């Protein structure tokens, strides 16, 4: 009996233990499932938090981007407004120099011009005096007190009755020095005293020069001549004020509208700014007589260009006109040979093919070679294209390639253009970056640049030309600034009224 009771207890104990194990297992299972559920919930919460954070970050980034874009737009708008305001301020400050004309007109001296010398230490002067005795140049060095007096060559004027043409050259100029000068004599009177400062640079290491064209004083058919005179004054005043380091100023032809107008020549020359920078004038089609102009204007040819300018190294054989003592000429600055051609000569144009090689042969070691003439080889004006191409383009192409010409500067178009590099067959070289701001390294061929009008006396619309890579008509006066070093020629074209950059290009030689 006791044995049965003991076995029953054992069975009960085992059952209880089994139940406890089952219960424990159930509890463990429940806890495991609860833990998994908790972990899943935590993971989901973490994912939701990450998604929320990512969404918030994305929204904040989008908001920041929108804000940045808005700020950039506001900044661009402000910059545009600032640039507009700057241009308006430029125009407002672009004041005509009314002092220059009465300064010269207070004396008997007329049509004084300060001009480029054949060498770096030379300045040439030209003026008219009512006295037949040779005039003098009084040339005073401000820093040292040295004074030199130079005698002029004097001849009776053919174009201006009662006046005498005086031509003189002063040498020994030094960089950085300022000179006070006046011209005339005691019998015929003296001009006012003007000042000229030689830029303080070594031109062998690089220098700057300026280009204008087609002032065409008196040509404007819509305005009085004085409007063009004032526009010309503003252009040269701004150039000499903003680029005082410039060595000289080229004017690429058509100084006046009518070759025989003394009033127009006075309107071109009598400006204070032109008394402090040497001028390199170029013969334009309005500057010398031709059959059409003589018949239209009713007066004959005469040496108007010659009697108003005193250019260096003038040829008496090449580039001449029967009615005027014109001629091709050249000068050197630093390592640059400048050859000025009279593209309006009455001779056959191919005479320049004889002249240019002679000049180059005399100066074979110059690294840069620049030709300047009035008529462009590649016109950007439709009415000129066929006419000029027939007798200018081909001859100039031969000259440029055969004599390693780097740049040709022209005018006449009253619109701006820049060509591709071209060869002697007038074919363009591809493979260069011709965009504005582009750089060409050791390019083949020659680049041609046509400067638009300096006064706006007339504007011509631009027409496509297969060899032109940049052209336009801003309907405002323009000028060029060109900086030359041993390895680089950097051209910049400016719109004068607002002094904004219109185009630029760089040629490099390594």
What does this structure look like?
There is one protein chain. The protein is of the alpha+beta class. It is 33% helix and 25% strand. The strands form four sheets. The chain has a seven-stranded mixed sheet with strand order 12-11-10-21-22-23-18, covered by helices on one side. A seven-stranded mixed sheet has the order 13-14-15-16-19-17-20, covered by helices on one side. Strands 3, 4, 7, 8 and 9 form a five-stranded antiparallel sheet that branches. α7 crosses α8. The chain is elongated. The chain starts with a helix and ends with a strand.
List the helices and strands and how they pair.
Layout: H1 2-93, H2 100-105, E1 110-116, E2 123-129, E3 136-141, E4 147-151, E5 153-156, E6 164-170, E7 178-185, E8 189-190, E9 194-197, E10 207-212, H3 225-242, E11 246-251, H4 262-269, E12 279-281, H5 291-297, H6 304-308, E13 329-333, E14 336-340, H7 352-362, E15 368-372, H8 382-402, E16 407-410, E17 416-419, E18 438-441, E19 447-450, E20 468-472, E21 478-484, E22 488-495, E23 500-508
Q: Can you tell me the residue ranges where pLDDT is under 50 for at least 5 consecutive residues?
A: none
Number of helices: 8
CATH class of the domain at 202-508: Alpha Beta
Number of strands: 23
Q: Briefly, what is this?
A:
The protein has 510 residues and is an alpha+beta fold. It has helices at 2-93, 100-105, 225-242, 262-269, 291-297, 304-308, 352-362, 382-402; strands at residues 110-116, 123-129, 136-141, 147-151, 153-156, 164-170, 178-185, 189-190, 194-197, 207-212, 246-251, 279-281, 329-333, 336-340, 368-372, 407-410, 416-419, 438-441, 447-450, 468-472, 478-484, 488-495, 500-508.
């Amino acid at each position: 009996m006791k044995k049965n009771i003991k076995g029953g207890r054992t069975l009960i104990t085992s059952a209880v233990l089994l139940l406890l194990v089952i219960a424990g297992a159930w509890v463990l299972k429940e806890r495991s499932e609860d833990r998994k559920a908790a972990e899943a919930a935590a993971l989901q919460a973490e994912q939701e938090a990450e998604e929320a954070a990512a969404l918030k970050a994305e929204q904040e980034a989008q908001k920041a981007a929108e804000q940045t874009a808005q700020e950039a737009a506001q900044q661009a708008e402000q910059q545009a407004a600032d640039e507009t305001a700057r241009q308006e301020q430029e125009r407002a400050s672009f004041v005509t120099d009314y002092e220059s004309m009465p300064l010269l007109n207070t004396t008997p001296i007329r049509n004084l011009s300060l001009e480029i010398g054949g060498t770096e230490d030379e300045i040439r002067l030209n003026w008219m005096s009512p006295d037949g005795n040779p005039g003098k140049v009084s040339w005073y060095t401000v820093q040292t007190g040295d004074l030199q007096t130079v005698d002029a060559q004097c001849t009776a004027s053919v174009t201006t009755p009662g006046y005498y043409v005086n031509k003189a050259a002063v040498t020994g100029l030094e960089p950085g020095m300022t000179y006070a000068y006046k011209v005339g004599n005691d019998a015929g009177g003296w001009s006012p005293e003007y000042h000229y400062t030689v830029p303080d640079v070594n031109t062998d290491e690089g220098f700057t020069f300026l280009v204008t064209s087609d002032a065409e004083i008196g040509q404007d058919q819509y305005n009085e001549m004085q409007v063009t005179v004032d526009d010309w004054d503003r252009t040269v005043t701004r150039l000499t004020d903003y680029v005082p380091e410039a060595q000289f100023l080229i004017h690429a032809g058509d100084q006046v509208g009518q070759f025989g107008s003394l009033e127009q020549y006075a309107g071109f020359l009598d400006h204070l700014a032109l008394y402090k920078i040497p001028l390199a004038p170029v013969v334009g089609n309005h500057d010398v007589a031709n059959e059409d102009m003589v018949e239209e204007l009713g007066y004959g040819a005469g040496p108007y260009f010659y009697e108003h300018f005193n250019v260096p190294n003038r040829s008496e054989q090449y580039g001449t006109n029967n009615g005027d003592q014109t001629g091709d000429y050249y000068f050197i600055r630093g390592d640059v040979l400048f050859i000025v051609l009279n593209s309006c000569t009455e001779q056959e144009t191919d005479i320049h093919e004889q002249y240019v090689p002679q000049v180059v042969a005399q100066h074979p070691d110059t690294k840069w070679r620049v030709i300047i003439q009035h008529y462009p080889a590649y016109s950007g004006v439709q009415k000129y294209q066929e006419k000029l191409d027939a007798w200018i383009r081909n001859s100039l192409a031969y000259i440029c390639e055969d004599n390693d010409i780097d740049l040709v500067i022209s005018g006449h178009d009253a619109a701006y253009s820049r060509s591709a590099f071209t060869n002697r067959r007038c074919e363009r070289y591809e493979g260069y970056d011709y965009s504005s701001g582009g750089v060409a390294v050791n390019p083949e061929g020659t680049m041609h640049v046509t400067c638009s009008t300096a006064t706006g006396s007339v504007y011509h619309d631009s027409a496509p030309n297969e060899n032109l890579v940049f052209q336009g008509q801003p309907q405002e006066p323009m000028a060029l600034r060109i900086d030359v070093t041993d390895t680089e020629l950097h051209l910049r074209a400016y719109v004068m009224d607002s002094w904004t950059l219109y185009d630029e290009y760089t040629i490099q030689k390594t």
